[in-house]
Write a structure and sequence with these properties.
The protein has 164 residues and is α+β, with helices and mostly antiparallel strands. It has one domain: endopeptidase fold (from Nostoc punctiforme) (Alpha-Beta Complex). It has four helices and five strands. A five-stranded antiparallel sheet has the order 4-3-2-1-5. The longest helix is centred in the N-terminal third of the chain and has 30 residues, at 2-31. The two termini are 32 Å apart.
Length: 164
């Protein structure tokens, strides 16, 4: 009997890990083709307005956190993440750690604002660097940019949270 129970738990763990990897791959499959989408106006344009409307907002609002929600929703995981365009909502319970995983959410704390003020999605970690996919940023990595970009961020400069 003990061997059957052990086998069950080992199989359940393996299935869970496989499902988790598939879920993360689904999120990244949505995010990756969005790299290169740009604003048309200030926090506006067809794509940006679609992202903002996913959280009940219109043009003109910051949209990095709404981008996270849009991606997770399109991948089928809207019930696992906050439906929010407020970046601090995405990092509640997040932590500084040395490793980020695919489809983790990251946040950057801005002392001038006293809060997390930018967020995005981890694609992969290579050494101390995270490759991320972020909405409402730019080539320089601004928190108020003009599109969806793939960025490099130091794992030491972000707070991470795992949803899947």
């Amino acid at each position: 009997m003990r061997i059957y129970v052990l086998a069950y738990f080992l199989l359940a763990s393996w299935v869970s890990a496989q499902t988790s990897d598939q879920n993360k791959a689904a999120v990244l499959a949505v995010a990756r083709p969005l790299v290169g989408e740009v604003e048309h106006g200030d926090n506006a344009g067809e794509f940006v307005e679609k992202v903002l409307s996913s959280v009940g907002l219109g043009a003109g609002n910051p949209w990095c956190a709404a981008f996270n929600y849009y991606v997770f929703r399109e991948a089928g995981f809207e019930d696992r993440v906050p439906k929010s365009a407020w970046s601090p909502d995405w990092l509640r319970g997040g932590e500084r750690r040395r490793s980020g995983h695919p489809a983790d959410v990251f946040g950057i704390y801005f002392p001038s604002r006293g809060r997390i003020a930018h967020t995005g999605i981890v694609e992969i970690q290579q050494g101390p660097w995270l490759t991320t996919i972020e909405g409402n940023t730019n080539e320089a990595g601004s928190r108020d940019g003009d599109g969806v970009y793939r960025k490099k961020r130091s794992v030491n400069s972000v707070i991470l949270k795992t949803y899947l």
